[in-house]
Amino acid sequence: MILIASTDAERAIAWHQVLAPHYQLYEVDVHDRHTLDMCLKKVAFDVLILDLTLFGEAGVNEISALIEIQPKLHIVIMAKSPEQREEISAVLFGAKAYCSFDMNLELLPKVVKTVLTNELWVDRKFVTRLLSEIEDITKVKHADAKKLDKGIAAMTPRENEIASLVATGSSNRRIAEQLNISERTVKAHLGVIFRKIGITDRLQLALYMNRHQQLSAIWHGGKENNAMSATSSLDPQEQDKHQ
Q: Which of 117, 118, 106 has the alpha carbon at shortest distance from 22?
């Protein structure tokens, strides 16, 4: 069954109409985050067509929170103003597709068919951009390892714990629950972490933590970490995104 979530009722209806001849859809489209969470907690869905504006400023960072509710959910992100880095973040945090509002809607059933086979529907150049983002991981340099060690050493044990959880895709809410602290405290810690290691967002932090673990495994004999395991599960036959 497919659930459609959008802040715009007309847009939701358009998506509903193009998918209805091909798939079973939930009778009611949802238009706010609270209702979305309630639906996911009560009904098992195969696919979620998600208007990213429903998440407001939090954007793709909230994807992992939905997957925590339904781990097997295939999420199709619909973005008003698609961005390359946002697309990478969306997939790393669990989305199966990243599309534009302006895409040919006749392709939407094909998008759903693709994600239901656990393949990705992304831009042709997605993998190239992703590899560029994590290029430092494969450029194994001792100096890099030392620099990363310095950044990690600057963190308190709690900050390191939170950073490691971010690297696995955990939302602020999930981190707060797991560590028995408030979401406000999590956000405060993240702000401090960003300043300490000179980064600005969660994607950079996730890549930073993963890069540190990879280099540590080589230069310090440490065990490889499974953080950001989503990067290794990307299907090599990436799907085109047609605008």
A: 106
Q: Residue 61, Cβ neighbours under 10 Å: how many?
A: 19
Q: What is the pLDDT of residues 97-133, one digit of tens each?
A: 999 898 999 999 999 999 999 888 877 766 666 666 6
209: left (phi over 0), alpha (psi -120 to 50) or beta: alpha
Average pLDDT estimate for 149-167 = 83
Per-residue pLDDT tens digits for 29-58: 889 889 999 999 999 999 999 999 998 877
CATH 3.40.50.2300 domain extents, the chain:
2-122, 132-232
Print burial letters for 141-169: b (CB count within 10 Å at least 16), e (below 16): eeebbeebeebbeebeeebeebbbbbbbb
Determine the CATH number of domain 2-122: 3.40.50.2300
3-state secondary structure of 241: coil
- Give, in words, the CATH class of 132-232: alpha beta
- pLDDT at 142 (0 to 100): 46
Whether the Cβ atoms of residue 1 and residue 43 lie closer than 8 Å to each other = yes
